[in-house]
Specification:
With 120 residues, the protein is an alpha+beta fold. Helices cover 32% and strands 9% of the residues. It has a 3-stranded antiparallel beta sheet, with no helix packed on it. The longest helix is centred in the last third of the chain and has 20 residues, at 95-114.
Length: 120
């Protein structure tokens, strides 16, 4: 049991891969029949996204954080646009955090826009 979970994500610039998968942890109820004392870990390496690619994770480097700050400043000039998710907030989220973030964004940003009576 290398990681203790099926998937471990890495978002730091010092790790040469994005994700590690330990297959036997997808089915812990079968642990006793899956070569006890042995495991297989698969490491997924990322690459820079190119035109036409769909990026999934932000790369947390100083240069990219500075670029995000510029984007965030411009986003503040768009009061009717809500930026969310991993790329919109430049953060890594686990799935429960993604769902919570979306619900909070709806309550605080989207619902008020939908119920405005000022004609905007």
């Amino acid at each position: 049991d290398h990681y203790g979970c099926p998937v471990m994500n890495f978002a730091d610039p010092d790790t040469p891969y994005t994700r590690a998968i330990e297959f036997k942890n997808f089915n812990p109820e079968r642990r006793s029949s899956q070569n006890p004392g042995e495991t297989v870990v698969w490491e997924e390496s990322s690459r820079a996204a190119g035109r036409g690619d769909e990026p999934y994770y932000p790369v947390n480097t100083a240069a990219d954080r500075a670029l995000y700050q510029r984007y965030a400043a411009k986003a503040g000039e768009e009061p009717s646009v809500v930026f969310g998710g991993r790329l919109g907030t430049y953060a890594y989220y686990d799935m429960h955090q993604v769902i919570n973030s979306a619900l909070v964004a709806y309550d605080k940003r989207i619902h008020p826009m939908l119920t405005r009576t000022d004609g905007q």
